[in-house]
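Bumping with the actual sequence this time:
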Amino acid sequence: MNLLKSVWLVIAVSVGVPAIAQTSVSDKATTGDSASMNMQILRDKVRADKKLVVAQNMQLTDSEASDFWPIYDAYQTGLGKINERMKNVILAYAAAYNSGPVTNEAAEKLLEDWLGTQEADVQLMRSYVPKLEKALPDMKVARYIQIETKIRAVMRYELASQIPLVE
């Protein structure tokens, strides 16, 4: 399976998140914690699919794999924290957007918060490159960063396409 098809597989799974989230919110009153369980199952599925995409495209030796996967898992944990921050910024934007025209002050705060998540994303990647370089040849480090960047770009595009412009 080539990288593009693999990326689309991850995206196909993750695009269902908004629909499931909407359904889960209305079901929560009747099913209790089943909505949060469904979201956790979906998150786990997306993570597993992403890991499969990376594994299929990295062409790691056994030795490289034993060094790479713990670094990958730690990096994904860091990304999870950044994604949580992004989610909070998006939720804050949704609240501001849904309560009428977004004020200049609210727009400025949202922009600063969003830029902070972008800076944290770059800092995280920079902090993991030396760790990856100890485990892999430079070509494979570049390949991993390229794969990670492509997956995240497609996911961000899908997310951005669902968020209305500030009014």
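The tokens above came from a reply further down the thread. The two ends are 42 Å apart (CA to CA).
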